[in-house]
């Protein structure tokens, strides 16, 4: 199946000289949830805005559902819903009117049933006759999502959807995104809350200084780059690790009460069995053990740091 | 053609108009009544007729033009400036809509509003002075043409302005003086030759003159010249709007 969004050799240099996107290539599959991760200023919003037609690319091509987003912009844009990062709403319009306006703007006739469904899905239906300025920040965020869904898009861009949003709305949003995915909608979200990507995404892309430095299936990414650590809680504190264990990547914990063994899950052998045997031979007993896997957040920090070469 | 989008923009803008009905409709009516009281009663008592037309009736076309120009410009300018200011422009830029359709929605709504206000002023004026319209068809045609042209001009200002001050700058500092000096309240024939010549450089003279011709069958300059000047300005504004959308000036980065 051809990708629903395909980005080829996309570059953007702003008038200020800022090179916001550098030769970006990216293919988004239909029906997936794709999380675009990156630090502030990495080019996440520029990338999204370029696909949506708000920013003009310097070079490269973008296709949405096979339609070039410049030469065939009507067909391309009709497929896209965009929830911007900033809370940019009208003030005096009523919720129902502003959502209906969005539907009209995307070339569709009135469909009160659909608008009603969208508002109900977002717990906005009770507020439908309120003016937007009377709503709280979280409610305004919901209005923006409702506007983006008003024309039944097949690709939904969520630019930092949960920035400054309370727990309840965040969970509502995650539920909504999953429901949309079940309906076949492709969701592309940017975030710098890694846990969000970890929770939601099928695939993860990492962008840094305008370059996509990695695109990977989330589970695969965590398996590949994730390190595991085995912690052994010792029966008797150790002053130092015995010579016989020097071959292992071991680290003696505080007070000599635990030994931490870091191993790579990618390796054919983890070395655990041999380590335990060697420990027994050295006469070291332990009372308990546990293992930990690095989170996506740790992987992300490693990745971004690794590329700057700054921190160890 | 994305007709639902044009209609959505048009309705959105008209809703804004009705929401601020007091300011949009009542204010021009009061202002017009004041002009009649001040100019009509005070000056009209001394200047009986201009060019054979009773002074009270003589100023009606100019008064309508004054409101038509300022309302067209400010409505259209505000209509497109506010989404830029508030950031809601993102939706317009990401919608499957051609620039021409955006202009049609905004300029269409702004022109509708100012024509409506023009007609309200005409009705108000009819309460003060007996009115006879010599060329009703041309009266309506000039009303339309002027409203569309200056709404387009206002749209350009709304795209160009990068603050509320600039938004008001052109209507207040350029258009209002030009209208007052454009023969709204007098015939430029009454001026000394030098100022008469200077006045011919003021585009508003041509608008007021043509409009007055539609009412009374006579104006300061030939109707054909007036029409040519108005269309010239319309073409200029169309050119500017086209250039703005083509380059994305102040709209896209």
From TrEMBL, chain A:
Q: What is this protein called?
A: ABC-2 type transport system ATP-binding protein
Q: The organism sits in which domain of life?
A: Bacteria
List, alphabetically, the Gene3D superfamilies matched.
Answer: P-loop containing nucleotide triphosphate hydrolases (3.40.50.300)
Annotated SUPFAM superfamilies: P-loop containing nucleoside triphosphate hydrolases
Entry annotated with the keyword Nucleotide-binding: yes
> Which residue ranges does the record assign to the ABC transporter domain?
5-234
Family that this chain belongs to: Belongs to the ABC transporter superfamily.
Pfam families named in the record: ABC_tran
Under the heading InterPro entries, the entry gives:
AAA+_ATPase, ABC_transporter-like_ATP-bd, ABC_transporter-like_CS, ABC_transporter_ATP-binding, P-loop_NTPase
Source species of the chain: Methylorubrum salsuginis
Q: Which UniProt keywords apply?
A: ATP-binding, Nucleotide-binding, Transport
**MF (Gene Ontology):** ATP binding; ATP hydrolysis activity
From TrEMBL, chain B:
Q: Identify the Pfam families for this entry.
A: ABC2_membrane
Pinpoint the ABC transmembrane type-2 domain residues: 19-248
Q: What main location does UniProt list?
A: membrane
Q: Please indicate if the UniProt record lists Ligase as a keyword.
A: no
Keyword annotations from UniProtKB, A to Z = Cell membrane, Membrane, Transmembrane, Transmembrane helix, Transport
Gene Ontology cellular component annotations, sorted alphabetically: ATP-binding cassette (ABC) transporter complex
Keyword Transmembrane helix attached: yes
Membrane-topology annotation of the record:
Multi-pass membrane protein
Q: Where are the transmembrane segments?
A: 21-43, 55-82, 115-133, 140-161, 167-187, 194-215, 221-245
Any single GO molecular-function term of the entry would be:
ABC-type transporter activity
Q: Tell me the compartments it is located in.
A: Cell inner membrane; Membrane
The family annotation for this protein states: Belongs to the ABC-2 integral membrane protein family.
NCBIfam families per UniProt: PRK15066.1
Q: What is this protein called?
A: Transport permease protein
């Amino acid at each position: 199946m051809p990708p629903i969004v395909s980005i080829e050799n996309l570059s953007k240099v702003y008038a200020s000289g800022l090179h916001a996107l550098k030769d970006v290539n990216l293919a988004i599959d239909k029906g997936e949830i794709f999380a675009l991760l990156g630090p502030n200023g990495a080019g996440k919003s520029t990338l999204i805005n370029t696909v949506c037609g708000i920013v003009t690319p310097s070079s490269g091509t973008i296709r949405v559902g096979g339609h070039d987003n410049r030469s065939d912009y009507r067909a391309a844009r009709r497929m896209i819903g965009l929830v911007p990062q900033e809370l940019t709403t009208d003030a005096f319009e009523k919720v129902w009117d502003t959502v209906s306006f969005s539907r009209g703007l995307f070339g569709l006739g009135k469909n009160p049933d659909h608008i009603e469904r969208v508002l109900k899905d977002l717990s906005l239906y009770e507020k439908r006759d309120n003016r937007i300025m009377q709503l709280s920040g979280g409610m305004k965020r919901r209005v923006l999502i409702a506007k983006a869904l008003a024309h039944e898009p097949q690709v939904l861009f969520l630019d930092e959807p949960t920035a400054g949003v309370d727990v309840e709305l965040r969970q509502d949003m995650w539920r909504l995104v999953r429901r949309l995915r079940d309906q076949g909608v492709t969701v592309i979200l940017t975030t710098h809350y890694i846990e969000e990507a970890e929770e939601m995404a099928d695939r993860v892309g990492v962008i840094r200084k305008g370059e996509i430095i990695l695109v990977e299936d989330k589970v695969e990414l965590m398996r590949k780059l994730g390190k595991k650590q085995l912690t052994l809680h010792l029966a008797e504190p150790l002053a130092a690790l015995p010579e016989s264990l020097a071959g292992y990547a071991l680290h003696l914990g505080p007070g000599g009460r635990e030994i931490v063994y870091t191993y790579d899950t990618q390796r054919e052998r983890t070395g655990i069995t041999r380590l335990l045997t060697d420990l027994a031979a050295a006469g070291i007993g332990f009372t308990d053990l546990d293992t930990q896997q690095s989170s996506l957040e740790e992987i992300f920090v490693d990745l971004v740091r690794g590329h700057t070469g700054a921190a160890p | 053609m994305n007709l639902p989008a044009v209609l959505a923009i048009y309705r959105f803008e008209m809703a804004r108009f009705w929401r601020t009905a007091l300011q949009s409709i009542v204010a021009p009516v009061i202002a017009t009544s004041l002009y009649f009281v001040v100019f009509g009663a005070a000056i009209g008592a001394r200047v009986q007729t201009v060019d054979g037309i009773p002074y009270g009736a003589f100023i009606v076309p100019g008064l309508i033009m004054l409101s038509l120009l300022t309302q067209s410009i400010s409505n259209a300018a505000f209509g497109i400036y506010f989404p830029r200011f508030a950031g809601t422009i993102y939706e317009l830029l990401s919608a499957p809509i051609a620039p021409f359709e955006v202009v049609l929605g905004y300029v269409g709504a702004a022109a509708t509003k100012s024509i409506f206000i023009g007609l309200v002023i005409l009705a108000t004026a009819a309460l003060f002075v007996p009115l006879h319209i010599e060329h009703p068809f041309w009266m309506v045609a000039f009303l339309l043409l002027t409203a569309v042209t200056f709404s387009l001009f206002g749209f350009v200002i709304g795209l160009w302005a990068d603050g509320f001050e600039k938004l008001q700058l052109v209507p207040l500092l350029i258009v209002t003086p030009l209208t007052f000096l454009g023969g709204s309240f007098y015939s430029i024939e009454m001026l000394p030759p030098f100022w008469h010549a200077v006045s011919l450089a003021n585009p508003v003279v041509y608008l007021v003159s043509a409009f007055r011709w539609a009412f009374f069958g006579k104006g300061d300059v030939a109707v054909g010249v007036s029409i040519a000047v108005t269309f010239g300005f319309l073409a200029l504004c169309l050119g500017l709007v086209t250039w703005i959308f083509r380059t994305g000036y102040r709209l896209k980065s």
